[in-house]
Design brief:
The chain has helices at residues 9-21, 59-66, 81-86, 89-109, 144-163, 185-195, 214-227, 244-254, 280-286, 295-308, 310-327; strands at residues 2-4, 27-31, 49-53, 71-74, 112-118, 167-172, 175-176, 200-202, 208-210, 212-213, 233-236, 241-243, 263-265. With 329 residues, the protein is of the alpha/beta class. Helix 5 (144-163) links the parallel strand 5 and strand 6 (167-172). It binds nicotinamide-adenine-dinucleotide and thymidine-5'-diphospho-beta-D-xylose (TDX). One of its GO terms (biological process) is nucleotide-sugar metabolic process. This is dTDP-glucose 4,6-dehydratase.
Length: 329
């Protein structure tokens, strides 16, 4: 199994999850170790996997690795919306060109391909509605990040239809859990509290996200890799929707801080209002059931992880906050 982006947040958790739950796979990780990739995230697995430091846009390297691969799970991406608003170029390169290069190699060597994508490709939903995204919702991305992911999804579908590539796709809601970069919402606020800074809420904090534990996401990916229908797309999401303000106040409460001990900062331009996935298909067809039913408990566990793993996140913290200062957030 070739895991692209396996040194990132979801990819590294996927490697640990696979070694534990599906020990039959021989894993090779391909990751270029951008600012978001951390070899240390794979330290507990170092003796049980092969790690290749390299770029998914490197045609020769991808060709060589794909020639000895049965299945590729493609996580590698530029993943942060705020960074895409500041500098879209790496998003176009990695998310679109990189996916194209992997698809061409998968086509050549007839490799099973799973493409990991996001609910952000659909745009957003109104705040006060019960509407949800489904596998049939038309794409309407808002940011350079989501536009690049939407492009990569359509490339995968075209390669299935035109070249018979054996691919599946999944679009998951927001993930949380260990090894998530401190630029992202939940870890940024946890680590702000841990270093004695005030958390930062964009705008009024009314925007809603559907929070899914990374292990539940990865369990879903395994179900699709094993039993998914070729060419099909599966939406993944816990069903637990929360406003950013709610998540932040819960974080503060779980860390024994005053619930209002945070700063409001200028809103993200084009900020998507609400994401919510209808995950009926993966639940009924593949039997996926999220095990982290209690978000508060999952968040408490995640806070604990950051508390005990300062060695992992501390080196990212100062640079990340310096970047946010440039963005004014
Ligand atoms: P991440 O930013 O934490 O990790 C991305 C990894 O890809 C890093 O290790 C990075 O070094 C690597 N990478 C980047 N460019 C590369 C390149 N050109 N060649 C090789 N490796 C490269 O991202 P994440 O949050 O783990 O997201 C993983 C995937 O899941 C992405 O495709 C993302 O769109 C998708 N996704 C994320 C979420 C979420 O909440 N984080 C939700 C749904 C879908
Ligand atoms: O400091 C912050 N304050 C704040 O209010 C940060 C970093 C974020 N926010 C808000 C913006 C969003 O409404 O919190 C929400 C979550 O922000 P992010 O963690 O940046 O996630 P989001 O933009 O929702 O995108 C995430 O989920 C979908 C991932 O980063 C994507 O890779 C994934 O596709």
């Amino acid at each position: 199994m070739l895991v692209t982006g396996g040194a990132g947040f979801i990819g590294s958790n996927f490697v640990h999850y696979t070694l534990k739950q599906h020990p039959g796979y021989e894993i090779c990780v391909l990751d270029s170790l951008t600012y978001a990739g951390h070899r240390e995230s794979l330290a507990p697995a170092a003796n049980n996997i092969e790690f290749v430091e390299g770029d998914i846009c490197d045609v020769e390297l991808v060709d060589r690795l794909m020639s000895r691969t049965d299945v590729v799970v493609h996580f590698a991406a530029e993943s942060h919306v705020d960074r895409s608003l500041h500098d879209p170029e790496p998003f176009i390169r990695t998310n679109i060109t990189g996916t194209y290069i992997l698809l061409e190699a998968a086509r050549k060597y007839e490799v099973r391909f799973h493409h990991v994508s996001t609910d952000e490709v659909f745009g957003d939903l109104p705040l006060n509605s019960d509407e949800k995204f489904t596998e049939e919702t038309p794409y309407n991305p808002s940011s350079p990040y989501s536009a690049s992911k939407a492009s990569s999804d359509t490339l995968v579908r075209a390669w299935v239809r035109s070249f018979d590539v054996q691919a599946t796709l999944s679009n998951c809601a927001n993930n949380y859990g260990p090894f998530q970069h401190v630029e992202k919402f939940i870890p940024r606020q946890i680590t702000n509290v841990l270093v004695g800074d005030r958390p930062k809420l964009y705008g009024e904090g009314e925007n809603i996200r559907e929070w899914t534990h990374v292990d539940d996401h990865n369990a879903a990916v395994h179900l699709i890799v094993s039993n998914g229908r070729i060419g099909d797309t599966y939406l993944i999401g816990s069903g637990d929707e929360r406003s950013n303000k709610d998540i932040l106040e819960t974080t503060l409460e779980l860390m024994y801080q005053e619930r209002d001990a945070y700063d409001r900062v200028p809103d993200r331009p084009g900020h998507d209002l609400r994401y919510a996935n209808d995950s009926t298909k993966i639940r009924t067809e593949l039997g996926w059931v999220p095990t982290y039913a209690d978000l508060r408990a999952g968040m408490a566990q995640t806070i604990d992880w950051y508390r005990h793993n300062e060695w992992w996140w501390k080196p990212q913290k100062e640079g990340t906050e310096a970047t946010y200062r440039v963005l004014g957030r």
